[in-house]
Amino acid sequence: MSNHLKEQSSPYLLQHSDNPVDWYPWCEEAFRRAAAENKPVFLSVGYSTCHWCHVMAHESFENPEIAGILNEHFISIKVDREERPDIDSVYMAFCQAFTGSGGWPMTIFMTPEQEPFFAGTYFPPTAQYGRIGFRELLLKVVEKWQSNHLGLLQTAEIMLARIKETDKERSGGIHSGLPEYAARLLSRSFDAQYGGFGQAPKFPTPHNLIFLTLYSKLFQDRPAIEQVNLTLDKMRRGGIFDQIGYGFSRYSTDEHFLIPHFEKMLYDNALLIMAYCAAYKSSGNKSFLDTARKTAEYIFREMTGKAGEFYSAQDADSEGEEGRFYAWEYDEICAVLGEEKGREFCDYFGMSEQGNFDGKNIPNLLNGNEISEQFQREIEMLYARRKSRGTLHLDDKVLTAWNALMICAMSMLYRVTGNRPYLEAAKDAHCFIEKNLVADGVLYVSWRSGLRSVKGFLYDYAYYAAALLCLYDATSEEDYLKSAVKICETAKQQFADEKNGGYYMYGTQNDSLVTKPKETYDGALPSGNSVMAYCFVRLSQLLENGQMQEEAERQLAFLSDAAKDYPAGYCMFLISLLFYLYPPQKITVVLGEKDSVEQIMPRLPLYADIRILRAETEEYKLLNNQTTYYVCKNQTCLPPSNQMPF
Questions:
Q1: For 94, left (φ over 0), alpha (ψ -120 to 50), or beta?
Q2: How far is CA 235 from CA 85, 248, 252, 282, in A?
Q3: How many Å apart are CA 437 and CA 399, to the nearest integer?
Q4: DSSP class of 366
Q5: What is the rounded distance in angstroms from the CA atom of residue 514 to the CA atom of residue 512?
Q6: If you ran DSSP here, which 8-state letter would residue 602 be given?
Q7: Which of 475, 532, 541, 586 is the most buried (most CB within 10 A)?
């Protein structure tokens, strides 16, 4: 049986296109039918590499009896949260208000007018784990819809009023003390033994680490950089980093960073490349640079398309079991590598006959062994063996926002290494976006199999503008800067709240939903509002543009008010604020004949406005016919020099 999902391009929706459930994508037709037949709407939100989404699909959505109940009494809608973050955001707010928590799969019951009255996440088909069974839940909703219809509508109205954004009057301007307050808050939750912040499960939250790296540099705060270095070291050593195939999993289920939730997301790996690059420049720790390089190697090998586009995610499951693809039996290692070398390898990577993961092993270096290349050949052998086990599901849709993050990561990796393939990767992804995800100046959310999805949201515009700025930082090519200005201007037209400040998640060219979120808090991804602040600050500094400075100050004041109670949850905004409060030095480099950009770039600081000239100009001339550095900071310029004065 096929349903209304068969013509969709989303891998997640296509996974459900043969379900016996008569799924619709989010569309007017579904809601019209619900209204005409007076049926409640069942909304299920997830993504293609989500383990518990797979479980609920297999247990319930492939179950003919449960499908029959859904088809008879409900209109069922399936949404890919990565393609429709607006829908996910609106109903996740309701789910969290209704249940006290959230997650995926997200289960929502609503009226034909899109007003929710019940929410949850995963439900087993029959009662277990202390949860009501999904079949029983469906029947209860049907009974309530028929016997107490007015009561459900009132519940929907009350809950909707509770979660609707209310724009309060903003107090004060830019709060310069927030970075210090955030650093103190993060320090209180720091795990000094195992690294990371808070208790298990532990998420990487690399934007927090990037903030602390910058904060420690500006304020000479040694504890902050020690927290960053320990966390990055523990993650590199743990099972959250794939020691065989490289790249990072989404989070660690334990406090040690040993056992991961095995799915790999493009955005995590992009942000972590940036965090490791920043920490390398700060500390000189070569293992951090090695980690960034290996993560990029994973991206090139597993997550990059033929035209340079970056794919979204790899699944945690294989053969219906989470982590099966990644786990090793001790005897299998010895069989592949030989008895003696296999034992040496297992001893080095913390593996035993008893195992550390359900009787099997996750390779790791948490035993304190030195990070080295001594088993490189054996790693390659095991990687080949692992590939023979089967193929992980790849979500091969191309998301504008996540590709923009990887453009930033590759640009930064180029800046710290001078390795041109990283820059070429960033440029290729930029070209892909321009060719496939931009039409008439409008960004689109995703592309797959020649099809674009819906028009872009704030994330897409903010992240893409940041990517253009990163490309400018890496190349000094003015076209990237001009494009970033245009993207920010378009974002302002579509998403800005001119009256109360800030930017809405969806705008004038998107669907209208029952609430209009204005997200400011950083989650696994930095908020669109925080990234817009960064873009305005950087444009104001690079262009020395007064109008851009006004936009930056307005956005920083808006976010200062939002972040004042718990600034540790707004680290991308704090990065923007630090750039604003402590403008980076301006460095113009005029290349001599004997030097190349690739030679000079790794020697330059990351926290600086860099411009590299391949030939001297009237204003910037070569000194002694050698590469010459012009450095200005705090409205003061140093004499030109053939030596880097920093």
A1: alpha
A2: 28, 9, 9, 18
A3: 9
A4: T
A5: 7
A6: G
A7: 532
Position of tokens 């349903």? 3
Residue 312's closest CA among 386, 393, 235?
393
CA distance 253 to 260: 6
How do residues 416-459 score in pLDDT, each as one tens digit? 999 999 999 999 999 999 999 999 889 999 999 999 999 999 99
221 φψ region: left (φ > 0), alpha (ψ -120 to 50), beta (else): beta
Per-residue HEC secondary structure of 554-612 comes to HHHHHHHHHHCCCHHHCHHHHHHHHHHHCCCEEEEEECCCCCCHHHHHHHCCCCEEEEE
Please list the residues that pair with 80 across neighbouring strands: 46
The DSSP annotation for 146-176 comes to HHSHHHHHHHHHHHHHHHS---PPP-SS--T
DSSP 162-224: HHS---PPP-SS--TTHHHHHHHHHHHHB-TTT-SBSSSSB---HHHHHHHHHHHHHHT-HHH
pLDDT for position 613 = 95
**Residue 439 has what pLDDT?**
93
Cβ neighbours of 511 (radius 10 Å): 13
Which residue type occupies 586? Answer: K
Tell me the C-alpha distance between 455 and 379, whole Å: 43
As a residue count, the chain comes to: 646
Question: Which helix H or strand E contains 637, and what residues bound it?
Answer: strand 636-637
- Per-residue tokens: 584: 């980076």
Amino acid code (one letter) for 324: R
**Phi-psi region for residue 10, left (φ > 0), alpha (ψ -120 to 50) or beta?**
beta
How open is the CA angle 10-14-18, to the nearest 5 degrees?
165
Contact 225, 210 (CB under 8 A): no
Assess contact for 576 and 556: CB atoms under 8 A.
yes
For 587-610, b/e burial (b = at least 16 CB within 10 A) is bbbbbbeeeebeebbeebebbebb
pLDDT of 157 > 60? The answer is yes
> What are the phi and psi torsion angles at 305 (to 5°)?
-85, 175
Tokens, residue 370: 């030195």
Q: What is the mean pLDDT of residues 505-532?
A: 94
Report whether 201 contacts 260 (CB < 8 A). Answer: no
Sequence-distant (≥ 6) Cβ neighbours of residue 553 within 8 angstroms: 173, 174, 580
CB neighbours of residue 291 within 10 Å: 27
Count of other CB atoms within 10 angstroms of residue 510: 20
Q: How far is the C-alpha of 525 from the C-alpha of 181, rounded, in Å?
A: 21
Do residues 415 and 602 touch, judged by C-beta distance below 8 A?
A: yes
Sign of the Cα pseudo-torsion (195, 197, 201, 204, in order): negative
Q: Two tokens at 57? A: 């699909």
Q: Is the model's pLDDT at 170 over the cut of 70?
A: no
Report the pLDDT value the prediction gives residue 172, as an integer from 0 to 100: 76
The model's pLDDT over 35-79, given as tens digits with 9 standing for 90+, comes to: 999 999 999 999 999 989 999 999 999 999 999 999 999 999 999
Tell me how far apart the alpha carbons of residues 328 and 199 are, in angstroms, rounded to a whole number.
27
Q: What is the DSSP letter of 75?
A: E
| Rounded Cα distance, 53 and 122, in Å | 8
Which H, E and C letters describe 377-389, residue by residue? HHHHHHHHHHHCC
Evaluate if residue 574 carries a pLDDT over 70: yes
